[in-house]
Amino acid sequence: MRTYITKPAEVERQWVIVDAQGQTLGRLATRVASILRGKHKPGFSPSVDCGDYVIVINAEKIHVTGRRMDQKMYYRHSGYPGGLSEISLRDQLEQFPTRPIEAAVRGMLPKNKLGRKVIKKLKVYAGEEHPHQAQQPVPLEL
What we know:
Order of helices and strands: EHEHEEHHHEE
Shape: globular
Structural class: alpha/beta
Number of strands: 6
Number of helices: 5
CATH architecture of the domain at 12-63 and 97-139: Alpha-Beta Complex
CATH class of the domain at 12-63 and 97-139: Alpha Beta
Strand order of the largest sheet: 5-2-1-6
Distance between the termini: 36 Å
Radius of gyration: 17 Å
């Protein structure tokens, strides 16, 4: 019996829309990362990008458990001495409501060329509006 490996030309992509309102951040991110990779398809190959496009709306209305809103910190460094800055999840949601979902999903993808290619298929929007109506996205229930 021969092992079948999906070729990139054989992949059929579709658009999926996910409503993040009231969803727990980590559980939402795992489902989105799985769809981006294509693990829900029977022809999944780990070395081929065979996933779908994902649109996440209402990113500003996500839910987290416990005291994570104030205790979870996001760090970035400018590259200069003393250039480390931190921001809590609550402040991140106020200033940049799409970044927590993007960061959570990025952390669940491979850290290589494939992961950098797959993350480009994720579209996150703070509110209900999105410019992808022409792609006729299919709603996904979580």
